[in-house]
């Protein structure tokens, strides 16, 4: 029987302003199984990135529940968050913005290792290994974010996410800022990592063609609500809603 390692139950996120409120995520539930890749698709503003931020506690949860490896992490704060980040890491859309421009890539990749108490020499060696794993040479550790291409920077960002040996990677539009050739290369790297390290993925994307190439199952969102969820090929070949049909027609 497959093991559920991440579960979101009836997630809700309401953003409050002085005059108004806006519901970005409205009663969304899903499960991620070990070794699986679940795609979350929808147009801009559908709530995809908000869900990623709720799961990783980068934004507060208004309602619902998040269970990680059988433990309710909905209200976890402070030091307890470190335990979550050891199991679940995020790769962002804009890799250059996710690194400190004043520090080298190696410094950024090694930060979480130093925080865990790893020594200087050991950290340096581990950073070089991570760079090689992600298709870069060790000398990239000495470069700054502005000295590398977008694709190289995203490889470094993936290396940083892998540093603590997480079991889940959340990719939030991790390929959308890259050109098509580089997108393909990054996707190939993710496929390789999935197989080698038995990683599980939440792959957040607006491009259904990419999702079909990488994900076994897909969740389709529209204005914060679930439109449909199921096996990727089935949803793409036999969409149940007009919205999914339009989404497919726009990219395939």
Number of strands: 10
Structural class: alpha/beta
Number of helices: 10
Shape: globular
Strand order of the largest sheet: 6-7-8-3-9-10
Gyration radius, in Å = 18 Å
| Helical content class | 25-40%
Q: Detail the poorly predicted runs.
A: none
Percentage of residues in strands: 25-35%
Global mean pLDDT: 92
Order of helices and strands: EEEHEEHEHHHHEHEHEEHH
Q: N-to-C terminal Cα separation, in Å?
A: 34 Å
Characterize the largest beta sheet: strand count, sense, and whether it forms a barrel. Answer: 6 strands, mixed
Structural description of this entry:
This protein is α/β, with parallel strands linked by helices and 252 residues long. It is 39% helix and 27% strand. It is built from ten helices and ten strands. The protein has helices at residues 48-55, 80-87, 95-98, 105-115, 120-133, 150-162, 180-197, 208-214, 232-237, 242-251, and strands at residues 4-16, 21-33, 37-41, 63-68, 71-72, 88-91, 168-172, 200-205, 217-222, 225-231. A six-stranded mixed β-sheet has the order 6-7-8-3-9-10, with helices on both faces.
Which descriptors apply to this entry?
252 residues
What's the quick description here?
Helices cover 39% and strands 27% of the residues. The chain is α/β, with parallel strands linked by helices and 252 residues long.
Task: Describe how the helices and strands are arranged.
Layout: E1 4-16, E2 21-33, E3 37-41, H1 48-55, E4 63-68, E5 71-72, H2 80-87, E6 88-91, H3 95-98, H4 105-115, H5 120-133, H6 150-162, E7 168-172, H7 180-197, E8 200-205, H8 208-214, E9 217-222, E10 225-231, H9 232-237, H10 242-251
Parallel strand pairs: 3-8, 3-9, 6-7, 7-8
Antiparallel strand pairs: 1-2, 1-4, 4-5, 9-10
Helix pairs in contact: 4-5, 4-6, 5-6
């Amino acid at each position: 029987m497959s093991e559920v390692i991440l579960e979101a139950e009836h997630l809700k996120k309401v953003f409050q302003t002085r005059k108004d409120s806006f519901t970005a995520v409205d009663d969304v539930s899903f499960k991620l199984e070990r070794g699986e890749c679940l795609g979350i698709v929808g147009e801009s503003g559908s709530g995809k990135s908000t869900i990623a931020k709720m799961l990783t506690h980068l934004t507060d949860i208004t309602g619902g529940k998040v269970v990680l490896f059988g433990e309710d992490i909905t209200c976890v704060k402070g030091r307890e968050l470190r335990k979550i980040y050891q199991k679940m890491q995020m790769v962002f859309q804009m890799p250059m913005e996710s690194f400190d421009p004043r520090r080298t890539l190696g410094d950024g990749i090694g930060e979480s290792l130093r925080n865990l108490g790893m020594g200087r020499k050991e950290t340096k060696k581990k950073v070089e290994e991570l760079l090689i794993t992600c298709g870069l040479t060790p000398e990239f550790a000495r470069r700054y974010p502005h000295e590398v291409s977008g694709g190289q920077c995203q490889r470094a960002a993936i290396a940083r996410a892998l540093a603590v040996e997480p079991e889940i990677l959340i990719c939030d539009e991790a390929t959308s800022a890259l050109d098509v050739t580089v997108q393909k290369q990054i996707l190939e790297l993710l496929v390789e990592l999935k197989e080698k390290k038995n990683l599980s993925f939440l792959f957040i994307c607006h491009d259904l063609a990419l999702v079909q190439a990488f994900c076994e199952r897909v969740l389709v969102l529209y204005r914060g609500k679930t439109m449909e969820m199921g096996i990727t090929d089935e949803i793409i070949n036999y969409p149940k809603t007009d919205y999914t049909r339009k989404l497919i027609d726009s990219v395939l």
